[in-house]
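Sample A.
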Amino acid sequence: MNAYRDQYATVFNGGEKVVLLAISADTPEALHSWASDSGYPFRFLSDPGGKVGQAYGAFNATYSLDNRNLFVVGSDGKIAYRAIPFREVDPQAYKELEAAIDGLAAGR
C-alpha cells in the first residue's frame, strides 16, 4: 500500500477523476489505525465477511483474507483492467496500471 501512496500523484492522477478504494477483509478499526498511521490519501473499505472479495474472485476462504488482486472499473461500472494477482514489487505493474487509468481518463 505504501507504493500506492508514494505513486498516488503519478499513477492515480492525484485523485483527479480517479477514486482509489482499497478493500480488505480486515476490521474497520484495524484499517483505520493502519491508514491513519501511514497517511494514505485514499479510502480503505472493510469487507470482514469477504462478500466483495468473493464477488470479484479475490477472497481466500482458507485464510479469510483477500488476495492481492487489482481491478480498474470504468465509470460505466465495467471492469476495464485486471491484475490477478497484482505484482506489487514489479515496477512494470505500476506502469501497466497507470496506462489503464490514463486510457479510461482519455475515453479509450
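Sample B, a different protein:
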Amino acid sequence: MMLDATQKYKNPPTEERLWDWHASLFPTGYSGMYKIEVAQYRTEEMQIVSGAMGKEKVHYEAVSAKDVKLEMDKFLLWLNNDKILIDSVLKSAIAHFWFIIIHSFNDGNGRIARVISDMLLARSENSSERFYSLSNQIFAERNAYYEILKKSQHSDGDITEWLLWFLSCLKIALQETETSMQNILHKAEFWEKHKETQINERQQLMLNKLFDDFFGKLTSSKWAKITKCSTDTALRDIKDLIEKRILKQNEAGGRSANYTLIL
C-alpha cells in the first residue's frame, strides 16, 4: 500500500484506489478475530476507542454511516483539485485530519490516513524516493496522536494545533533520518579506512553493533556475552582494537572499565 502510494504519487487517490488499499490491509476479510467490511465504505456507526475491555475510552465518534459516501466524495474532490492554492505539506496535514474525521472504513483508517500523508509529501517533493517516514513517526507517537486528534475534533473548527503537531512530527522524522544517514556514512567511511586492517569475526560483529544498535556502555562482559566468548578473549579483542586505535578506554577503570569508538 505504501509503495503504491509513494511510487505512484502522481496517480489520483480515487475511491477505487482507496478500496484497493483497504483490501490489501485485510486480505482475509477479518481484522483480528472480527469480520469486517472490506474494500467498501462502512455501513455501521463508528466510535474510536482504546483501553482494555470494560475500560474502553471513547476518543471520537465518526460521522454517520449514511453520510460517509457524500463526505468522501467532497474529500476526494478537494484532494484531487490542484487549482486550490495551498502549501503541499499543509495539504498533507489537512488531508490526514479530514480523512480521520470521516473514518470511512471499519478498520485501517489510521494507516490509510498516514499513507495519504506520505503520498502528498512525495508529491510536494516530486520524488518517489522516500528517505524518511512520517507514518512511522506518527505511529511511534500514537498516544499523543490520539489526544491531539480528539482535541482538534472537538474544537470550533480551528485545527491550528493539529497542524503544528503534524509539522513537529514531520521535523522529528526528518531529524531522525538525518541522524541515521550520518551513522550509515560514518560506518561506510570507517570500514573503507580499515579495509586492510586485520579484524576478526568477533571484532567485526561488535564494531557493527556499535554503529547500529548498541545501547549503554561497551564493557568486556557485554562483549563476551554478545560474541559468546570468555571474558579473557573479550579483553584480548578489545586491547587489540585499542592498539589499532579503533577503540579507546574511557576514564573509568577496574570493573567499571568501558570503551568507545574512535571516529
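Observation for Sample B: Residues 103 and 109 are 6 Å apart (CA to CA).
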